[in-house]
Amino acid sequence: MNGETHKRPTRWHIAVFLAPAVLVYTAIMILPLFGTLQLALFKEIDKELVFVGIDNFKTLFGDPRWSESFWNALRNNTWFFVVHMLVQNPIGILLAALLSSPKLRMAAYYRTAIFIPTILSFVIVGFAWKLILSPLWGVAPTLLDAVGLKSLFAPYLGKEEYALTTLSLISVWQFVGIPMMLIYAALLSIPDEILEAAECDGITGMAQFWRIKLPLILPSIGIISVLTFVGNFNAFDLIYTAQGALAGPNFSTDVLGTFLYRTFFGFQLQLGDPNMGSAIATAMFVIILCGVCIYLFGIQTRLRRYQF
Amino acid sequence: MSQARHSITRSVAAHAILITYTLIALFPVFVIVINSFKARKAIFRSPLELPNAETFSLIGYETALKQGDFLLYFQNSLIVTVVSLALVLLFGAMAAFALAEYRFRGNLLMGLYLALGIMIPIRLGTVAILQLMVATGLVNTLTALILVYTAQGLPLAIFILSEFMRGISDDLKNAGRIDGLSEYRIFARLVLPLVRPAMATVAVFTMIPIWNDLWFPLILAPAEHTKTITLGSQVFIGQFVTNWNAVLAALSLAILPVLVLYLIFSRQLIRGITAGAVK
Description:
Structural class of chain B: mainly alpha
CATH superfamily of the largest domain in chain A: MetI-like
CATH architecture of the largest domain in chain B: Orthogonal Bundle
Oligomer: heterodimer
Structural class of chain A: mainly alpha
Number of strands of chain A: 4
Largest sheet of chain B: none
Strand content of chain B: under 5%
Strand order of the largest sheet of chain A: 1-2
Number of helices of chain A: 13
Helix content of chain B: over 70%
CATH architecture of the largest domain in chain A: Orthogonal Bundle
CATH topology of the largest domain in chain B: MetI-like fold
Radius of gyration of chain A: 24 Å
Largest sheet of chain A: 2 strands, antiparallel
CATH class of the largest domain in chain B: Mainly Alpha
Order of helices and strands of chain B: HHHHHHHHHHHHH
Number of helices of chain B: 13
Shape of chain B: globular
CATH superfamily of the largest domain in chain B: MetI-like
Strand content of chain A: under 5%
């Protein structure tokens, strides 16, 4: 790469280039991350921090009051993720496949419009949908009436059995632009020769998509899945804005992020507990790390990559 | 002939699906914005109609601007986003250059260390970050937010930028060295201009989550004078939840600036994303 190693024994510029990023990243991200893992092993007894080993985790998983909330949040979070995988990513792939067809007109307009929800903040999205779905206002019933489905209307965000799925779909609505864009970029990078060769062999249209393009974009789909996973198990904002820190009705929309927030800061009569909060953050850390490792070692290494 | 008809049917179907989805994507934004310009009665009587001479009213905006300090919130958000973005781009490009350009001991390890943050969300360190900010007296300052967002944005920025910098020809840089340019000048004069498209991609991926974040403003800087627009509108809407005019106006005030910026830059943005940063 550069052949001047022998000239200058200490290359200070490398350190200068690296220092600011490494310092900020280490001080604000890595150290607090390990600090949090460490805090999870302590407990405040009589205003003093005492090392208690894995006691906090014993409480989290052993005490029924804590463990029930934790498993409830984890279950909800998993469902939140499943809805994203089943709805967001297929819709994203479908839209990208349609947009990438070379003869399509107005593709730029569709792209711009479909990406708009992604740039909006959770606060806007949460409240906008809350208003639209509100039985008080009546936009949703009016619309359903227009297509003859008025009987289907219910206060979706207020019913325990629908609230979580509704929120997941709102989040899908917001983020569908991201898989769409990434898949779109991947589809555009497929060389024309491959598609021409496929056409010569009589593989066109849907068959071409399933048999040629889809295998080629599988690595991108893998990356999107793991990004979705990390994002979903880290979700907080949308649920906090739409349902509050209590993740109502009756905790039916509680995910790990809101559970962490409530534990850390306290709510109503319960006081905040940084050490239990750290224990939950540690559990989330382990869950996310497991997911990422499964992807890196289980899926990514088995994906066949093609070089053009 | 049948081939042609077949392809027309297909393109009509494609347009139908795309138009349907575009409507789904835009409809909520549209409903919020048009209703923010209506009087209270009209909001409820005919939520889907455009405001006309009879129903037009700016009462919501008056309440929102009088009660909430949206200009200040907006300014806070702007400062936090622009400064963090500048720091992420500068520090990220410098570190990416060091990783991509020089062979030194620990290069690979350093790259992996810096990439760790792509997969592990910074939020999990919140408890300790708050303690750190309390200890350094940075709670309720914009500096706290800027530091956190800089750390949050760096891993992805370094990853993407170093991939791009590896693709820059060595001949060019060596020519610069022969002409007597220092390593710093080579970075600033030769390399930075060449990675501008990648910088745009990184800027977009860094900016959107910072502007929209609710978690860190809520925890690190909830004071009135440091509220960002996201937190500010969240609190405002929570207080005025029954005043529909004010709520709709506040939502529109939060939507419109971002929307205008997006429409101006959407072409660069999409070109940046599709430039092949993630393959």
